[in-house]
Amino acid sequence: MSETSERTPMDWDQRFKDNTTPWERGVLHPAFLDWRESGAFDDRERIIVPGCGRSPELKAFAALGKQVIGADLSGTALAAQKAMLDGDGLQAELIEADILLWRPDTPLDGIYEQTFLCAISPRLRQEYEQAVHAWLKPGGKLFALFMQKNEPGGPPYGCPLEAMRELFPDDRWEWPDGDPVPYPHPLLDDKAELAIILTRR
Ligand SMILES: C[S@@+](CC[C@H](N)C(=O)[O-])C[C@H]1O[C@@H](n2cnc3c(N)ncnc32)[C@H](O)[C@@H]1O
C-alpha cells in the first residue's frame, strides 16, 4: 500500500522502498533484550507488534515460541518480515491494515509498542488507547517505549510522560512503581525512549 490518507499522511510504504527509515536500529532494541532477559515475556502467549515495520522483534517473539502478530500499513515492510521469518523457518500472522481499526477475535496477552505511537498523528492517540485496551485481556501487558522529544511536530511525535499518564488513565491501566528506564535512540539524536510496562485493568 503506498497511498497516503488523512489518517496516515506519511507514505510509509515509500519510506521502506526508499530505505529512508532512520528509526530502524537494525538490531533488537535493548529494552526488548532486557525484558526478554528478565522473563517479562515468559507468561505472554499471544502478542501483537503494531506498526511493526521491518523491526526484528517480531521474528524474535516468534523464536521464543509466541503466537505473534505483526501489523502494518506497508506491504513492503510486511514482505520483508515474511522473508525474515521464512529464512529462519518461523511463523507469525501478518496483517496489512490500518491496525487501529482492527479487533482480535480473542483478546491478546501482550502488545509490544516500539516507535508506533510516536509515528501516528497525535489526533489518533485516543483511538490508539481505545484500540490497545480492546486488544488486551484484563491483566494483559502493554510493553511501551515512549519517545521523548522536545521539538514540536513529527513524526516522531513526542510522548511526554505527563501526556502518557493522561492517555493511559489509572482506572484503565495499572502503572508500575518507580521511574521508567530511558533508552537513547542512537539514530534519532539519542532521543530517549522510556520503557514502561502498563497492565490493562
Ligand atoms: C516509525 S515506523 C516504526 C516501525 C517499527 N515499529 C520499528 O521500530 O522499526 C512506524 C510504522 O508504523 C506503521 N503505521 C503507521 N500508521 C499505521 C496504522 N494506522 N496501522 C498500521 N501501521 C501503521 C508504518 O507503516 C511504519 O511501519
Automatic annotation (TrEMBL):
Entry superkingdom: Bacteria
Molecular function per GO: methyltransferase activity
Biological process according to GO: methylation
Keywords for the protein's UniProt record, in alphabetical order: Methyltransferase, Phosphoprotein, S-adenosyl-L-methionine, Transferase
Signal peptide: none
Gene3D superfamilies in alphabetical order: Vaccinia Virus protein VP39
Pfam families listed in its UniProt record: TPMT
PROSITE patterns in UniProt: SAM_MT_TPMT
PANTHER family (UniProt xref): CYSTEINE SULFINATE DESULFINASE_CYSTEINE DESULFURASE AND RELATED ENZYMES (PTHR32183:SF6), PTHR32183
Protein name: Methyltransferase domain-containing protein
Organism whose genome encodes this protein: Hyphobacterium lacteum
